Amino acid sequence: MPLDIDDPGVFGENGIIPVDSFTDLIHGHRPPGNIDLEIEVATDGEPVHLQVTVQSIDEYRIQVVSSWKATSGGRSVGLTWEQDGIPVTSSNRADRYSVVYEDERRIGVPVAFRGLLPDLSAECSMCEKMSSESVDRILRVVRSIVQGFPRIRYLGPFRTVPSRRYRIPSRVPSSIGNAGENAVTVLAGDTLREQGTLVRILNEEISQAIPGWRIEVLEEGRTRSVLLVSRDNPHLRINLADTGTGVAQVLPILVQRVMDLVDPPAEPVLEIVEEPELHLHPAAHAGLADLYLDRAVRSRTRFLVETHSETFVLRLRRRIAEGRCSPQDVALYFVDHRNGAAVSRRIRIDEDGGLDHWPEGVFCEDYAETQALVRAQLKRQTGES
Question: Which residue in 7, 233, 261, 274 is a FRET match for 84, CA 20 to 30 A apart?
Fold first, then answer.
């Protein structure tokens, strides 16, 4: 069964990796090539350690899961793609794998994948070939991962530029979208169908990111305009399309947070966010960190945030030191590149907000520039050349 990079089982419910081809994901863009993924998923039971290799078959322009191994509780089950024949290109057929569990080994076992996980939801020919114990083991692994992250959202670093007017959608979107494209549409529809509930709550919480302003939705015939209105001068009203880039970048984040408050997710959500602080003044970065901490406590949403903001990280450490959250509530990782691969290392935070280590050269630019400035000032004062 070919692996589709847009399959919701691969990268989330909306196909969150915006690339033109599989080779765009491979270091050096080398076709044919493969991607090795390794992840440990902690659930209520034993943690599951998953190792997956996705291989690109350039001749047929498809990708397959060439190896899959899950380890949990000291036991592992492995699947290896048998490359003797032509890869299956039909979406409703399965490739053949060698399956190993404990001392049991079977070859020529048809296995269909949905994304990076074996698809055992329908009639499973693999289940007929393997013993009940090995099948149960695979089922437990797959279910533990799916139950841990039943829904995945993604918000990219470049959010959609606001329009001047919006039409009311026939159906309200369930999320803001991968680029925040639905955020303002949600607000426009809220004034018609929900009497402005979202807008009212949004204005109660917007002060950290956009101080001194509130959101207002203006009816204009069959369309709506979204305005920023000054809290000090109600006559100062600016269409969202005319505001700074930072407002357009942060508004989708705020709208999704309010949507989750008004209509909490029925199941756990993992929300992946790239650079939430983009185009915002550094003074607002700390407020965003507080927002994510608050929502992690008050909702069933967990956040995977990629940030370049030192202020964002410092605020998290400060809240831990103040006792407002536990070190166990925050996991800090630094991603480094070694020998053509991306390697993540956890930086542990203690109860005082201290770190067990810090990567050399990261967030040191301000200090280095300050040192250079002082040296230049001393030279001018002493007359050195």
Answer: 7
